[in-house]
Amino acid sequence: MAGIFSGLEKLGLGNIDGKNLFEDPKKKDAPVKKAEPQKKLTLVNEEDYLFDKKYKCPICDSDFEVKTVRTGKVRMKSVDVDLRPDYSEVDLTKYDIIACPECGYAALGRYYTSLNKYQIDDIRNKICMNYKKQKYDEPTYTYEHARSLYQLALANAVVKKAKNSEKAYICLKTAWVIRGETQRLDQNEADYDKKKKENDEQELELLKNAINGFIMARQSEDFPIAGMDSTTLDYLIAALAYETDQFDIANKMISELLMSRTANSRIKDKARALKELVAEKQAK
Questions:
Q1: pLDDT (tens digit, 9 = 90+) per residue, 56-110?
Q2: 4 assigned to some structural domain
Q3: What mean pLDDT is predicted for residues 106-118?
Q4: Where does the record place a coiled coil (predicted)?
């Protein structure tokens, strides 16, 4: 887990412990194949697809703006096997974190204002008191900056004792950010192989954490989970199991989906396609 939080020291949050990222509910009291690396994609005028959206921080009451994608202007090219949408003009996932530049509170948009008094106190004591403000004035987010925002969001989620599903979702979307960066690496650069290897290893670690968190969430949380109904989550777990070579889990979840009376035809079609991918990968 050290790798996931590597780099938080520069924000003053090197004390965040992510060894036990997810809480085991048992210990509590009662299809499209992943895209292959492509040649570097040039995002022409990425800032034309962005605007500054205003927010008020629920922790320190500061007013601030964050870069947000004009979703009506971007076109989706494809969807990866684990439901990551791939857009032509801009990588939307880079801009999904809302982070207060004053106090260091950060979260995915769907969770940003969902805080209770105890969580606010914990964030103030463990994040805000140690946070070192970082100035960032670029017109678009680099992948390095996007990664740091996701790290900050995960650190906040750990501190506020967020649900396993929220932490798993952050891990998943961080993996998507890394995948987007990998797709845009220039294969002609001297350090391409090294950078791709590092990215692939980091993405795999995050996907493994994501599936662990979603499995625990499935056992203990009410639906919808991270905005997903039960069949969508079951498909995602199967896809993540495929990506992380956990074939027993993948085949079990796919079989349950295909036999389900509640799964719609779209999900069943995706499950059938995934079943073929699993079989191909197992045969290698």
A1: 999 999 999 999 999 888 999 999 999 999 998 899 999 999 999 999 999 999 9
A2: no
A3: 97
A4: 178-205
C-beta of residue 80 within 8 angstroms of C-beta of residue 235:
no
Residue 65 in contact with residue 54, Cβ under 8 Å? yes
Establish if 116 belongs to a structural domain: yes
